[in-house]
Fold this protein.
Amino acid sequence: MNGNSNRDTDTSERKLVSLARLTESEWGPACATIVMFSIAVGILFFGIERAFDPDRGKDWWTLSFETRNADSSSFLVTNHSKATRFTYTVTRGGSTLSTGDLSVAKGDTRLVTPDVVPDSGRTSVSVSADDGTKREIYRER
Amino acid sequence: MITFLPFLLVTLAIPAFGHLLIWGLFGPSFRLSPLERLTFSFVLGIGSLDFSMMAIGRAGVGLTVPVLLLALTVVPIASAVLRLIFLRFFISKRTPINSRPDTFGSAVRFSDTERAVFLLLFGLTVFLKTFYLFDAGLPTATDLGHHMYWSKVIVDTGRLPDYSKREIVDRGDGHTSLSAPEPISDFIIGEHLPFAAIAKLSGSSFFSAFPISFLLLVNLLSIIALFVLSVRLSVPLFRDRDISPVTAGLAVLFFAGPLFTLASPETKFVSGGVVGNLFGNLMIPLVILSFFRAFTEEDSRFLGLGLLVTLTLAYTHHLSAFVLGFSIFGTAISLIGMSFRNLSGLLKKFLRLFMSPYPALALVFAGSFFFLIAMPTYIETNAVTTAVGTPLKSTRTGLTFLQATQSTGTARMAIGIAALVLAAAIRPLRRSVTFPFLLGWGGILLLMTIRPGWLFLNIPSDRIGTYLSFPMTILAGLFLAAFPSYFRNPVGRISGVLLPGTAFLFASLILFSFPAWDGSQDNQSSLPGSVRTQDAIEVFDASIYLSDHALPGDLPLKDHNYLAADSWMKLLFMKGYSYPLSRGLFKRYEDETNPREQCTLRMISAPNLSDGQTCFADLRVNLLAVNPRYDSSQFEKSHAFSRIFDGTSIQIYERKQ
């Protein structure tokens, strides 16, 4: 009799626990949270990867010396703009030492090595693009 | 496009192993609703990962990919195996799993309507945040750059970082020099370990969406944490009323989710990389939830859980840990005040909770880790003392009430305070166990924000103010949920303030539309301004050029005022936190309460004057990166500088040595 009573108590307690678990089985909102976050991550990665693309939706180009070596006037044109045709001029003290044209496709970098050795004073490299923009670098010796 | 999958896999593994850890530590009968389980699993997963990485790092073992996999998995798996052994050999099959009736289990049961509203509100929240972050473009924020530098140090070296930097110091003879590396107290390792582990395990670049995606998860989980906390708080609060706890939680979600969702401390903190605060805003509500459930359900396992979350927070963010400490203190004072006639009963309850295995084990673990393995850097550098004392600077003497209201959101503040007044005035609410928790948390934060001097706090008041929005959000949401019950339909013997039908309808409309309007205005005013994506890309490109062309012994200086994403430049050098040196915000050079070196200002602003030239000679700075729109002519007219890189947003100059 006593054993039956204990068994009944255990059974009812187990039912209570099962009921509690049943009421807690609200996984829908939790799963939705994970799914929504996953979608947001996909969108953010997609958008930010595009933002990191130097060519997509951007219009810029840079001019730089190829090396830090003061005896070199070689320069790089890195193009991420709509312009493709560029003109360069190397000058020192108002005199033009070298000039030329180059074409650089969007996303490309071109190395130009003018036959000019920087001397005392300021040796400048000016590059103009066919969209009217202009850059200038120079070395002081 | 597919690059996000490894990140997602590793990130979601953190709550998965955290879930296993909770099961292992607290057993199968430990009752958490699924949303609670999700948030606690994430935080415990982070905690387990952090403490494992710290222990492994301190032991001198490199943090390689296999070691990090072990750090992520071994503690949860070991705890689960031990639990299985315990259940198999030490628990009789006839022993009831848990004989205590679950008075709170039904609280988290959603009706179909509530589930739909939850999905709608939360979906709208995720949409708004994602839209904002998508529109904001590249991760370029200063704070995020600083934090990601330290995470990248861990990834690159496989070691725990040595938080130090070289400072420019005045030698006292009119000359300056670079100091030896000195400890920094601003950074705490828990802010960087999860990012490092994810980057290393998933192969994600720091120059990707991964940092802000991870912070977005932290932010979203903090909103879920507020929701589940509100549900639990509303059970005893509305015991005598026909108010569904989930509906009360949804009212809070209304305030915390789609409304006020962009401004600080929400999505702006995500895009801004305010890592520590975001973790704090997740962990503080969870600690309060744990302690509340421990206290109301008299289950010491929740106390143990709360202590573990507190420990994780202590190794993640000093200010949040500080705010949590005060919040607990405020709640304890409120509880004592409310139980004044039965203090011995309250004391016995506390003793029963603390004198049990789970809190004791948590405290032993905390003490052992603290004394034997690693202390938080702010303890080691004694930075806590600088946060305590009479505030002197005007930024630390407290916000005005109006400023606090603007920081928290007018609607949240107004309705939140109305809720506190209402709860204090209505006896059943006042006598509910929820009231001291809300009063203690909200009250102490309000005091810390507007009257820090009363508590001897010497911390920037606007930073404290951002924490006030959370208790005010809960209070405002609970008021919104309770309004119909208290002002329209008195239930049983408890009377409410009956409003005539039209007045009630009018008041309800105002109560709903005021926060909706205020929160939307707040969102609108927080939309990102002009996006500087192209500028940032140019700066990154120039930094790579500089990094490729820098020689041993070179020391660059860049400008923080006008260059986009400049704090990220050091991630492309990885030659120290102070490499390149930086011209800081102009106002910092004029701060009389905190005099600082002037060389970084002079070398860019006035490079041709004698003071600037002395700085160049002393520090041997020879490369300068500036924005040509603001800082070009002073270098152009000098014969001491060559311009070696020219772009729209950045130029690099080399100084003749």
